[in-house]
Amino acid sequence: IGARPVGDPYILVGQILTVTYFLYFLMNPLMMSYWEKIIK
Q1: Which of 5, 19, 24, 30 is most open to solvent, judged by the fewest CB atoms within 10 Å of its CB?
Q2: Where do the Cytochrome b/b6 C-terminal region profile domain residues begin and end (predicted)?
C-alpha cells in the first residue's frame, strides 16, 4: 500500500486540505479579535 505511487487528484486534494488546515490556525486569532470588534 505504501509503495504505490499517488494518483493525480489526490496530490492536489492533499495540498488544498493542508493549506486550509494551517490557515485555520493562523487566521483564527485574527478572526476572533475581528468578531469581538463587531460584537461591541
Answers
A1: 5
A2: 1-40
